[in-house]
Structure formats: structure tokens, C-alpha cells
Amino acid sequence: MRLIFLGKPGSGKGTQARAITQAYGIPAVATGDLIRAAISGETELGQQFKGYTSKGLLVPDELVLAMVAERLENDDCSGGFLLDGFPRTEPQADGLQAMLTKVEAPLDAVLYLKVPDDILVERAVGRRVCKESGSVYHVKFNPPKVEGVCDVSGKALVHRDDDKEDVVVRRLKEYDEKTSPLIEYYKKQGKLLEVDGVGSFEEIEQRIKGVLQSVNGAG
Ligand code: AMP
């Protein structure tokens, strides 16, 4: 199953993506994670990325497209994948379409997790992540057993720089300007599946599984 997962920053997309990929046995390809890995690897490309991410701005399309093209060529993506945080602009969506057309592997569906902006700011500002295990917590809605410590790895949790309030507001603006047009883009292709993203983790997971039942390849 080849899926795109659209949702604003803080929509709970990353957490749900993990559940979907486990349920369907496909890898999650999260451009935010690939970009953060390049930044912490202190590569030259990572330095360029940091100049954008630290300000809440999008990384240029050609850099992201090259990174995704390379990742999708990995064997683990041959049976499908879930794209998380990509595409984020129309040129990225066009680039993806060209890549998939070339290998005759069309998208099955585009999930869109809908959450109002005020809830998003509260979620992102309270979000804490573990760099080791990839676990995601929230200081109020989903706290770890011990404050500031990952339940899985025992390592200290971090508040991502781009989850700080001013950066979150900037990221939401970027989303409205550059990513929102993709809703129409995929609606026109008849691929868009909208899911209400307000509720408990389990409720949202069930809604997602419900809409995915209608999708080719979900069987
Ligand atoms: P995320 O974890 O998906 O919210 O991504 C964190 C940051 O990485 C974003 O705020 C952007 O600066 C950058 N980024 C991630 N995915 C993309 C993308 N598809 N296009 C451009 N920039 C991206």
C-alpha cells in the first residue's frame, strides 16, 4: 500500500503513522526525520537544512525530492510505504507523481488528519520526543512515567527547537501557504481521505483504519 499522510505540524500524524505502518507492514518515510538525521550527522547538507528548519521554513524542493527519491529506492519500500511530512508543496507532489509514474507504482490514497490550529499549537508546545527510541510524549496529554525521561529508552526527552511556540506559528503559516493547496490537488485525483484528528489516540486510530478499509491493497 502506497500512502501519503497529510496533516499540519502537531496533528498527531507521526504517532499515528507508527501505528499504521505496524498494522500494514510498510515503512514510514518521514522527511522531517531524514532531515533531522542529516542535521545531527553534521553533514554539509545537514548544515544547509538547519538554516531552514531552525526558522520553521521549508527546505527547498529539489533537496527534499532528491532525498525522497533515494529513500524510495531502498528495498524496504518495494511493497509500499507511508510518506509522512512529504509532499509539502505542489512541486514536491508533482515530483513524487513523476517518480511513481516512472516505476508504475501509483499512490493508493492520501490520508488527511484534520485538527484546528489552536489545538495544534498547544500540542506542539507540550510535545517531547526521545531521540533514541523515537517515542513521542506530551507534558499534559501523554506524559512519560517519569517527567522528562523516555519510558522505552530511559534517556532524557527533548523539546524540539521547531516545536517552540514562535516557530510553530511560523510553521503553521508555511503550511497554510504552501501545503494546503495539496488538499485540493489530491481531492481532484479522488485520492483524498479526510479523518477527524481530534480525540484519543485509539479513536483516531480506529477512524484511520476504517477509511483505509476502502483502499486498494489494504486487504
Ligand atoms: P516535520 O518533523 O515533518 O514537522 O519536519 C520538520 C522540519 O523539516 C519542517 O519544519 C521543515 O523545515 C523540514 N521539512 C520536513 N519535511 C519537509 C518537506 N517535505 N519539504 C520541506 N521541508 C521539510
Primary descriptors:
single chain, 219 residues, alpha/beta, five-stranded parallel sheet, two-stranded antiparallel sheet, 9 helices, 47% helix, 14% strand, globular, binds adenosine monophosphate
Listing every helix as H and every strand as E from the N terminus to the C terminus, the arrangement reads EHEHHHEHEHEEHHEH
Oligomer: single chain
Terminus-to-terminus distance: 9 Å
User: Got a strand count?
Assistant: 7
Instruction: Quickly give the structural class.
Output: alpha/beta
Radius of gyration, taken over Cα atoms and rounded to an integer in Å: 17 Å
Count of alpha and pi helical runs: 9
Q: What is the percent of helical residues?
A: 40-55%
Average pLDDT works out at: 92
Can you tell me the overall shape?
globular
Q: Compounds present?
A: adenosine monophosphate
Unreliable sequence segments? none
Strand order of the largest sheet: 2-3-1-4-7
Q: How many strands, which pairing sense, and closed or not: the largest β-sheet? A: 5 strands, parallel
SS strand fraction: 5-15%
